[in-house]
Amino acid sequence: MADSAKREQWKEFLDEFQTESDRSCAVLGAAFLDEQLRSLLEAFIVDDPKRIAELFDGVGAPLSSFSAKIQMAYALGFVSPSELRDLELIRKVRNEFAHDLHGVIFATPSVASRCAELTGCNVVAGSIGGLGPRSRFTVSVAMLANWVALRRLGIRDARRQVQGEVKVGWPIATEPEAPAQGTPAAN
């Protein structure tokens, strides 16, 4: 996808994301970060569409869940400990909205408490004053999505390559022979 199309998609997402209900905002924000993490990981691993699909798609795929993508991005050094913590908090907020059938809003004490722990929004919070739970969530999602996208751009040349096959008859490295007894060893 061209950069201009990605920018337009990002703008459209932000417009929709900020005007949705609390439940939709929480689910959409986490889903967007989930996709950003997938794109980051796909940009790094070998370019093999069949294997990528096996990693990310379907029940039981090792990287199909938001949680697994978060953990892998951290394990590969793509997110910092504070970003890991914010991603986990956003995942927990999403889960609360997704699994409680009624009555959850950003002002719900458990949700508001998790949003109060988010630190990604502190980058801009000082310049615009105190943020409520929903604003802390939306700003943190936007900041994390930007950081992940920038890291994806930064690893363009780091994509892993499939290793060549070992050829029969390649020389095998051996230990150097020990010097004959009574002969000084070469330094």
Q: Could you say what the CATH topology is called?
A: Four Helix Bundle (Hemerythrin (Met), subunit A)
Distance between the termini: 58 Å
CATH architecture: Up-down Bundle
Q: Give the overall silhouette.
A: elongated
The ordered H/E elements are HHHHHHHH
Strand fraction equals under 5%
Q: What percent of residues adopt helix (DSSP H or I)? A: 55-70%
- Kindly give the count of domains: 1
| Strands, total number | 0
Could you state the oligomeric state of the chains shown? single chain
Structural class: mainly alpha
CATH superfamily: Nucleotidyltransferases  domain 2
Provide the low-confidence segments as ranges. Answer: none
Using the CA coordinates, give the radius of gyration: 24 Å
Q: Regarding CATH, which class? A: Mainly Alpha
Sheet of most strands: none
Q: Provide the residue-averaged pLDDT.
A: 85
Summed up, the helix count is 8
Write the layout of secondary structure elements.
Blueprint: H1 3-19, H2 22-44, H3 49-56, H4 66-75, H5 81-99, H6 109-117, H7 122-128, H8 133-154
Keywords:
Four Helix Bundle (Hemerythrin (Met), subunit A); 8 helices; 187 residues; mainly alpha
3D structure, described in words:
The protein has one domain: Nucleotidyltransferases  domain 2 (Four Helix Bundle (Hemerythrin (Met), subunit A), Up-down Bundle), CATH 1.20.120.330. It is an all-alpha fold and 187 residues long. The protein is elongated. Helix 7 (122-128) packs across helix 8. The chain contains eight helices and no strands.
